[in-house]
Amino acid sequence: MKILAVDTATEACSAALLVGEQVFARYEEAPRDHTRKILPMVQSLLDEAGLALSDLDAIAFGRGPGSFTGVRIGIGVAQGLALGADKPLIGISTLAAMAQGAYRRDGAEQVLAAIDARMNEVYFGRFTLSEGLMVPQQEECVIEPTLLAEQIHLEGRWHTIGTGFVTYDAVLQLAEQQVPASAPCLPMAEDMLPLARAAWLAGEAVAVEAASPVYLRDKVTWKKLPGRE
What we know:
Blueprint: E1 2-7, E2 12-19, E3 22-29, H1 34-49, E4 58-64, H2 68-85, E5 89-93, H3 94-106, E6 110-116, E7 122-130, E8 133-136, E9 141-143, H4 145-151, E10 159-161, H5 164-167, H6 169-176, E11 179-180, H7 192-201
Parallel strand pairs: 1-4, 4-5, 6-10, 10-11
Antiparallel strand pairs: 1-2, 2-3, 6-7, 7-8, 7-9
Helix pairs in contact: 4-6
């Protein structure tokens, strides 16, 4: 199996390539420089693996949530590559990728992921490990930090990861009660690969025109977290 993954949804810019069980990866924190860096990263990976785009089975992209511009860059690049090579696309949650990274680096099995969404809000997701993959335990949401701290109730110890846990005091206090994941706290494309592989095997890859980003702010209302009446 050969899957290329690209992500530009946050300050990080990254690309990774799965070839069988081998992973090739590139990562750089490069705010406002994604458009210049992502395609050379992709070409570098393909050159290292000795592959062409036509050799791939699918291309995965960070579908968000994250920066509006960053998410658009990521899906645009993925669509351009996939269209030229006639390959399907797989959208991967950036929050899920962060949780998968906490598992890869720290062995975390329960993860809270939060990205600073600006405007005094965070993008938030809660994940637990199942057969090596991080599975969401609720619908991802955008929420004010104080509301998140008030409404979430946890059992056991959780790893926390993401810029949302270092930006706002209310979420920072929540994080201090849990286990901080090791750096980096931004999504990495290599952590999208296990999720993309599972999605590919489950038949969840889509045609280029059917790929879509996730912004979360498109939703007018937000559902309460599980366990609250």
